[in-house]
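Subject: for your reference before the review

Hello V.,

The reviewers asked for a structural picture of the protein, and I figured it would be easier to keep everything in one thread rather than splitting it across files. Below is the amino acid sequence we used in the manuscript, unchanged from the supplementary table.
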Amino acid sequence: MGNTQITFIGAGNMAASIIGGLCKQGVPAAMIRASDPGIAQLEALHSQYGVQTFNENGLAVQDADIIVLAVKPQVMRHVCEQLAPFINPQQLIISIAAGVTCHSLSQWLGVQSIVRCMPNTPALIQQGVSGLYAMEQVSALQREQAEQLLSAVGLAVWLDTEQLIDAVTAVSGSGPAYFFLLIEAMTQAGVKLGLPQATAAQLAQYTAQGASTMACQSSLDAAQLRQQVTSPNGTTEAAINTFQAGGFSELVEAAVRSAANRSHELAQQLSE
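And here is what came back from the structure prediction:
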């Protein structure tokens, strides 16, 4: 992507993380632009990465090959309608805003070369995962560019239909909070068993980190890894049996489905 001009509309935390990841990949700072009304964010980006900064979106997108829409969903329509006169059909539009459909973006911008993606908060430390969906008009080269851009902050996974964005939101978009909740609960349980708060927190946090790394690196799936460490009549089996007796799997499924349903509802509201 060294010869690809990339413009970020919005210079918040997620945009800054992607810019940082691109710079680590070797993308020249001269090929990256950021536009935002916030002077402090722009100054921080320029100071840290040397990227070009703008406070006028129309100027920032001139000659850009890729335009990354990184503004809040609630202001996306206003931003897009102001950008529309400056956009041309050859430019790739990548939206990282939750709940804003490709159809809405296409209507507001007047173009169809759009990729919608759903990153999650670990992308802020380049450890995220993003679900991507491309409209039919997006070329093979543009798909490759979109994947490379999102890979700067973690794993990028393509989706066959846009409707699956709701499932991605439910599993990975909201997913970090589920793990934080489990860490929180394990910490509290450890404290009740007599561990100091700091010690219990460290044990839970690093156990989560280690288990996640094993799951990502192993050729075995999560169920097989769990079975490996669950000895018959042992301590782990006692805990797992308690989880299952409480309907753990069913509760997780219900929670994830609730998140997916809410994602769909929010998308409908934002398209109105």
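For the response letter, the relevant points are probably these. The radius of gyration is 21 Å. The longest strand covers residues 128-134.

Happy to draft the paragraph if you're swamped.

O.
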